[in-house]
Amino acid sequence: MGSLVGGCVADFFTYETTKSVVVKSWSVGILNRIVQMLIITYFVGWVFIHEKAYQTTDTGIESSVMTKVKGVGYHQGRVMDVADYVFPSQGAVVFCIITKLLVTENQFQGRCKEVRTHIFHTFAALCGPALCWSANLGAITGVCLPPEDPTNNTIGQCEIEGWCPAEREAADIKPMLDVNNFTIFIKNSIRFPLFNVTRGNFPSKMTREQIRSCNYHPEKNPFCPIFRVGDVLNYTGQKIEDLAVKGAEIGINIEWKCNLDLSIERCIPRYSFTRLDLPFSKNDVSKGYNFRFAKYFKTDNGTEYRTLHKAFAIRFDVMVTGNAGKFDTIPTLINLVAAFTSVGLGTVLCDLILLNFLKGAEQYKAKKFEEVITLRE
Known about the structure:
CATH superfamily of the largest domain: atp-gated p2x4 ion channel domain
Radius of gyration: 37 Å
Largest sheet: 9 strands, mixed
CATH class of the largest domain: Mainly Beta
Number of strands: 15
Shape: elongated
Helix content: 10-25%
Structural class: alpha+beta
Transmembrane segments: 333-358
Subcellular location: Cell membrane; Membrane
Order of helices and strands: HHEEEEHEEEEEEHEHHEEEEHHH
Strand content: 35-45%
Distance between the termini: 18 Å
CATH topology of the largest domain: atp-gated p2x4 ion channel fold
Catalytic activity: Ca(2+)(in) = Ca(2+)(out); Na(+)(in) = Na(+)(out)
């Protein structure tokens, strides 16, 4: 019994090592080194240098954006300032610059004809909802009104109840092309909460005079927060003449990619611009961008009336994305272990070739594997 215990103790404190077989083959040796170099190159070049896998990354960026538009233009013989063409006026992350306005004044609640024509018939049932539509301009009453031209007894209009007179389309309204020279001021502050790092999209030492006199350019003036509308459209490959009539949606993306192992001053924004509604630019339905709003008034006797505005506008969406990374021991060790383990894949590949495809495979197998037959007691 004592000898058995002593044998177990002796076996426990022995050292075992793997058996190495040296194969002197140029082809296998070169293949092994090539595979190892490819694996090392992948981890060094892609994983560590490009992807920065040695860092902890914070993708939960916190952002605040304030916008302000400036410029004066002419539309339908009127001078338009910021209060006339910017909506909403709070300097939000999404805002619109109106390029064309269709105004319907002095609308009162009542009944009137719709602006869409309909086949006239003596039976009022033909002016039901199934056959006559009013583009949400009012509720259809079911009454057919006689044609305006008494010589034409086939074309009539349906009666609607709502705000009258109904809105009419006007093809002769020219858009406000002065929008091209308007400027957009963008103030963006961000924070990476994991590292408690805050940054702004223009240097804090930049003076008021410098900001007022600059215009953003990706190479000549990349830190200027003033963007000329015409330049923004050019960066998206668009022209104001093509967008002002029906409107459009433009995206301004502010991207923050910060390597906090370097100087914090190198944590800077990069801007990109795109037309967001481009997939629908050639559609007949829902082309461009427009919306309606009304201004309400009351007569001396208390009757309410309004002025309806249909606005065609260029909508700007300011989007902020980004991440920050900083060296951390734990991800570094994890990726180093993965790299060293992956280098062993070259040995596995070479073993497969030696054991199955080369001459002398049986000899290599006999050297590599040693079979032990267990004797029965």
